[in-house]
Amino acid sequence: MFATLLLGYYAGTARKLPWRDNPTGYAVWVSEMMLQQTQVATVLPYYQRWMARFPTLESLAHASQADVLSLWQGLGYYARARALHAGAAHVVNVRDGQLPTSAAELRALPGIGPYTAGAIASIAFEQPSPIVDGNVIRVLCRVFGLAGSPMHQPLKGFLWELAEALIPRGQARDFNQALMEFGALCCTPRSPLCQGCPLQQHCHAYKHGAVARLPELPERPKATPVVNVAALVRRGTRVLVGQLTSDAPRWASMWQFPNVDLTTSEAGTATESETRAVARALEAWCGVHADIGVRLHSLQHSVTRYRITVHLYEATLEEEPTARGCQAVAWCDLGELESLAMPAAHRKLASRALTG
Ligand code: SF4
Q1: How far, in Å, is the centroid of ligand 1 from the Cα of 18?
Q2: Residues 229-242: pLDDT tens digits?
Q3: Which of 106, 151, 108, 152 shows the shortest CA–CA distance to 133?
Q4: Residue 66: what pLDDT?
Q5: Dihedral (Cα; 113, 115, 121, 124), 10-degree rounding
Q6: Among candidates 234, 259, 258, which has minimal Cα distance to 353?
Q7: Cβ-Cβ contacts under 8 Å for 205 (sequence gap 6 or more)
């Protein structure tokens, strides 16, 4: 009954999305990686540009990391782009370009977790493999009245078993997409559309007034505040930027204004001045001493569990910069910065500093 109602709902409401037209393993892989933590509307233009530039696994495998990151910029969570790139290279170099079709084999590839493996196996290859993401968790916990934390055992494992048991024979592709679509459009986190819901008669949470209480998600840990200072060094219309090394913990291989996090005590109090920290950034990134001027711009942004405030300071160098703590340094104007992979926060700062 559950599957029949859901498939009926999907037949009537499925959005026309480019990765659904021809769901190859590669197309599903790219779309699922982009859709993690990101809305469909945001992903659409990125997906179109990506497939125009890297239409096949081979073209992605042979692309430079700079091109890959450049196309991904603005989507955030760049580890996803690196994982996709590394996975494509592995499939081309080790598996002769052939993606495996089972979820178990897909999971053995670099960068593919249980959810992505299940999505590729079911949507591209019609394998009866379950998927469990935030949408699926919400729908199953509400319809079946499942209490407890879905992030912890035993409910976590049970959800995977239930999602697998519910797949109707030979319809994994449509069923899994129906489940995700239903969670995204009808059984939403806040204000679900219970009045017009096709599952209402069978929904435990609706019958028992528990819709707002389920799923019982653990509280998110509070974001850790971080103060970061960056240097704006000008040379005519150009500014100095550095490229992080590929093993940097945040924004690996991306271009930024030289910057460091302010040193703080265990209690979170700053133990150095912002201008001293800017000078430290230029020494660490470019091996130069500098005069630090005024604070030009500030902005806030979030990265995973950090809430970062960046302050951009004017600086004048006493020597020629070299790539000391980073991979490379370059002098770029606004147009040239456009072609570099930069985190959104630094791109915004560059735009403010060079046009404001
Ligand atoms: Fe979700 Fe409401 Fe439908 Fe239950 S009745 S499945 S809570 S939309």
Answers
A1: 28
A2: 999 999 999 999 99
A3: 151
A4: 86
A5: -110
A6: 234
A7: 141, 142, 143, 145, 211, 213, 214
30 Cβ neighbours under 8 A, 6+ residues apart:
19, 47, 50, 51, 84
Closest to 141 in 3D by CA, of 57, 54, 216, 66: 216
CA atoms within 13 A on the CB side of 309: 10
Residues near 220 by beta carbon (within 8 Å), at least 6 away in sequence = none
Tokens of 192: 């679900």
What pLDDT score does 339 carry? 85
Give how far Cα 341 sits from Cα of 11, 246, 277, Å. 40, 13, 24
CA nearest to 340, candidates 352, 353, 325, 328: 328
Question: Which residues of the chain fall below pLDDT 50?
Answer: none
- CA–centroid distance, 209 to ligand 1, in Å, is 11
Cα gap 200→17, rounded to integer Å? 27
0.85 cut: is pTM over it?
Answer: no
pLDDT at 356: 65
Residues classed as catalytic: 32
Q: Could you identify the atom of ligand 1 that is nearest to the CA of residue 192?
A: 8
Q: Do the beta carbons of residue 229 and residue 311 sit within 8 Å?
A: yes
| Ligand 1 binding pocket, CB closer than 6 Å | 142-143, 186-187, 192-194, 197, 199-200, 203, 205-206, 211
CA of 56 relative to ligand 1 center, distance in Å? 39
Q: How high is the pLDDT of residue 308? A: 92
User: β-strand 306-317 against 224-235: which pairing, if any?
Assistant: parallel
Q: 């580890």: which residue's tokens?
A: 79
Top mutation candidate among 211, 213, 214 for ligand 1, by most atoms within 8 Å of CB: 211
